[in-house]
Write a structure and sequence with these properties.
heterodimer, A: 2 strands, B: Thrombin, subunit H, six-stranded antiparallel barrel
Chain lengths: ~170, ~280
């Protein structure tokens, strides 16, 4: 059941990512919704699910957009695994730790992704730091908000139902 | 169960995932030379494996050929040594055969030149006592040999038959103390008697002191003894001194090397002997 939920989340993120590709922070970086989903799965399930989610999501993302299949997959695999490991070692339930985690995940992802492309002489990333920072902050903000919504929404619904029941 | 075990080892999963991605990326990326990275890396890695394998194989082979196989080399070395010894013996046999053939050819030439009725014989033994200078030849009365038949060789006079048996004969060499032969100096035709001296040399006796004799003169048989045919070489005058009774004391070096005597001719009929051309051989 959790695997299905993870799969659905990845598919939704991919769908949103492909349809909302114009999500741009200050015109320099797009938010990576798939990365946010991978980090969330790792936070909730641990390193192995995070690794699996990163692999699947990254490969699909590569297949849809990147010229080389596997570079994005490798980056997201590493991020999912590391995020899962951190989640098992530290308490990452508050918005700030999660923001930091998302920023770190974005930086690591960008380092691996861009690093491999540059290393293999496939693509150049001139002045990558501002775009990476912008993407990290955007991913962090969107991710923290999304995580809070996801975790707050079920309780909110339950409370609404309970309130209606008491009014009757 | 197996899935649960794998999930307990995230490091292994991470390594597998990274490897999967690296392979996947390498299959799509080309190197500077235009070849796929996967192909280059795979070939390069496998080449290193091959290099390592070859190094190990070479090492084992070298160790085997350099150390372990030395046992076989030792055996081969022994076999080669044995073969070399066999070949050396065979070479000596061939050399001896050639020498024997040469000697026989010279004997044949001597026989034809001397026009004597002769019998060829091999020397099969030397004297049993050093006091007597004799040899044994492999022909005897069965071949018509008899006492006092002259024995000659291509180099010169050897001696005479002193004891014929049925299949062998004893030959007294000219250098024996009791041997003697009528002789003359070829250059001056001065006659005398050559006798054995026992030390391997000869003495020419009864040569008048007034006669012309000098070292280097050739001494040949005179034929007057009724044993040796006339004109066969006896030796060369080595030393001439003043003797007693008005005679020269002449030392003659034998023409025949008696230490290397192998094949000889026995002159069966002295009546058939003729005078050889002057000078000899």
């Amino acid at each position: 059941m959790r695997i299905v939920g993870a799969g659905v989340a990845i598919l939704v993120a991919l769908a949103l990512q492909t349809t909302l590709a114009g999500l741009v922070i200050r015109g320099t970086a797009a938010i990576d919704l798939v990365l946010i989903v991978v980090v969330y799965i790792a936070l909730k399930a641990g390193p192995v699910p995070g690794l699996a989610a990163g692999t699947v999501a990254g490969l699909i993302q590569d297949a849809l957009s990147n010229p080389i299949l596997g570079i994005g997959g490798l980056a997201k695999t590493m991020v999912g695994f590391l995020a899962g490991v951190l989640a098992t070692q530290f308490i990452l339930t508050g918005p700030l730790p999660r923001l930091v985690l998302l920023v770190m995940a974005t930086v690591v992802h960008a380092a691996i992704f861009m690093g491999l492309y540059v290393l293999l002489d496939l693509r150049q990333f001139p002045n990558p730091v501002p775009s990476v920072i912008g993407q990290a902050l955007g991913n962090g903000f969107v991710g923290v908000v999304t995580f809070q919504l996801i975790e707050w929404l079920p309780g909110f619904v339950d409370r609404r139902r309970a309130g209606r029941f008491l009014k009757r | 169960m197996a899935l649960a075990d794998i999930r307990q080892r995230p490091g292994v999963l991470l390594g597998a995932a990274i490897l999967l991605h690296v392979v996947l990326i390498s299959a799509q990326v080309n190197t500077v030379s235009g070849l796929p990275v996967l192909q280059v890396v795979t070939f390069g890695s496998f080449a290193e494996v091959q290099r390592g394998t070859m190094a190990i194989v070479d090492g084992v082979r070298n160790f085997w050929s350099g150390y372990v196989a030395l046992r076989q080399v030792h055996a081969e070395n022994d076999a080669l040594k044995h073969e070399l010894q066999t070949l050396q013996v065979r070479l000596q046999q061939e050399h001896a055969e050639a020498q024997r053939t040469d000697n026989l050819r010279q004997l044949l030439e001597l026989r034809e030149r001397a026009n004597l009725e002769t019998t060829a014989a091999d020397v099969i033994a030397a004297a049993a006592s050093p006091e007597f200078r004799t040899v044994t030849i492999d022909k005897g009365t069965n071949e018509g040999l008899a006492t006092d038949m002259a024995v000659i060789s291509p180099a010169g006079v050897v001696g005479r038959v002193i004891l014929p048996a049925r299949r062998a004969s004893k030959v007294q060499l000219l250098i024996d103390r009791n041997a003697a032969a009528g002789a003359m100096i070829e250059r001056t035709r001065v006659q005398g008697v050559v006798e054995g001296f026992g030390d391997g040399t000869l003495r020419m006796e009864y040569v008048p002191g007034s006669s012309d004799v000098k070292p280097g003169d050739l001494v040949v048989t005179s034929g007057i003894d009724g044993i040796y045919p006339k004109g066969f070489v006896i030796g060369t005058i080595e030393q001439v001194g003043a003797g007693s009774g008005g005679y020269h004391q002449i030392t003659v070096r034998p023409a025949v090397d008696f230490t290397r005597l192998e094949e000889v001719l026995v002159v069966r009929t002295l009546a058939a002997s003729h005078q050889l051309p002057e000078g000899g051989e």
